[in-house]
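Worked problem 6 (solution included).
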Amino acid sequence: MNVYPKSEFELKLDETMLSLADGKARRALEYLLGLKPLEQLMGFCNVVSVERYGFNDHGRVHAKIATINALKILDLLLEAGVEPNVAKEKVGDDEDSRLVTVVAAFLHDLGMSIGRENHELNSVKVGDPFIFSVLREIYPDEGMVFVLRSYIFEAIMGHMAHMKVKSIESGVVLVSDGCDMEFGRARAALKRKTTPAVGDIHAHSAMSVNRVEILKGQSRPLEIFVQMKDTSGLFQVEEILLGKISASSINPYIQVSVQVADQEKMYYRL
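Solution. The predicted structure is:
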């Protein structure tokens, strides 16, 4: 019995995610999407995050949006000639780097099935069986499985910017997570609110954000453009996104722009 059925929106995210992936990355995503226990566990993450804690979405939809973001970001960096660490360190090639990135992005919040505190570390613990399973499905070389597992661990453990990350793959996951700030992520949590509480600015500011676009940059390889209804959305950009970008290994390759309502587009100086 599927107690956390997929919405039409989520099904469209599946299509988009798979359309952006190819090769080993697509095989990995298809494999993970086919794991019913993982699907159920990711659904339960939102029971803990939204219902128990009153936080934003940390379930399947967020994981898929973060994965889509990660694919877009990594592709723009590769197009600009940025060499990811899996290739630079002669562990594998760009295709292997894309697999590392999507697996980490897809599984990065599994620790929310336990709770908020140390959830990035718990995501590694909870996600390890799935990481092993998907890597063994694709790589016959056991040594490769263990090495790529370490890359994935770094990316998952670094997504809150509490741990300094060095690899390009980890930096991509960190920023792709921060880019999921559109209004839909906060709607479920706000519906459950009956009284104001400390921290509500996270949800209210997210409700102001109309869209986030990952674009080819002008002065840098990558531009993250955030369009918002009012200035409360600046909290999402300045307190969350910019903090993650500044801690990221891909910081030098990013420019951030915002547009409030119909005002002129503005660029942050990073």
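Discussion: Confidence is low (pLDDT under 50) at residues 185-194.
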